[in-house]
């Protein structure tokens, strides 16, 4: 059974802090790892990673994949209150574009 | 505007009633998906469809049914056999059904409450 585990489950930081969110996986026929941000309703896409060791970056957010150790991290630098959300990690497997999601990390950024 | 729409936003149902959640996309995507989200459990796959007139069960299909008669539409019926239907339901679509590399795009969700 495919499994995706995220840690921590919940995190509270002060504005300006840097945070690292973790995602580990055990799946068959790995294709890609995706990060989403969910604020109120629809998750919005952040990154898709398919190759080990190549960092994807967008503004203050960055992510990297380690296919040997089966994990990914999502870094957020200089956090802002607008970063408060649930961050979801998902792994794509096989040929059907199916995604297996982790339980998410709830991030709260306080002033 | 291209996107995925779900209706209604909020739905209340009495125990023992079937209810159908709507999902429509105008992105011309091949694949569509239904997920259920409960607090602390992430997203769990209910059903998915890679092409019109074909669909497959996901991890938690019991008590649910779907149809895919048109490319743009993938309605989900929550039947009375679903023991704990109160949840947030998300519909998603993906452009390519076969590559496994494409991100899924999500609709705004429907919150179903059983009274």
Features:
heterodimer; A: 111 residues; mainly beta; six-stranded mixed beta sheet; 11 strands; globular; B: 115 residues; 0% helix
Q: What would you note in describing this structure?
A:
- The complex is a heterodimer of chains A (111) and B (115).
- Chain A is mainly beta and 111 residues long.
- In chain A, the strands form two sheets. In chain A, strands 2, 4, 5, 9, 10 and 11 form a six-stranded mixed sheet that branches. A five-stranded antiparallel sheet of chain A has the order 1-3-8-7-6, with no helix packed on it.
- Chain B is globular.
- Chain B is mainly β.
- Chain B contains no helices and eleven strands.
- The chains are: A mainly beta (111), B mainly beta (115).
- The interface between A and B is medium-sized, with 30 and 30 residues.
The count of helical stretches of chain B stands at 0
Which chains share the greatest interface? A-B, 30 and 30 residues
Low-confidence stretches of chain A: none
Order of helices and strands of chain B: EEEEEEEEEEE
Radius of gyration of chain B: 13 Å
Structural class by SSE content of chain A: mainly beta
How many β-strand stretches of chain B?
11
Per the principal axes of the C-alpha atoms, what is the gross shape of chain A? globular
**Percent of residues of chain B in beta strands?**
over 45%
Please state the oligomeric state of the protein chains shown: heterodimer
Segments of chain B where pLDDT lies below 50 for 5+ residues? none
Largest sheet properties of chain B: 7 strands, mixed
Helix proportion of chain B: under 10%
User: What is the CA-based Rg of chain A, rounded?
Assistant: 13 Å
Portion of residues in beta strands of chain A equals over 45%
The 3D shape of chain B can be described as globular
Q: Give average pLDDT of chain A, whole number.
A: 93
Query: What would you call the structural class of chain B?
Result: mainly beta
Give the beta-strand count of chain A.
11
Could you spell the SSE succession of chain A in H and E letters? EEEEEEEEEEE
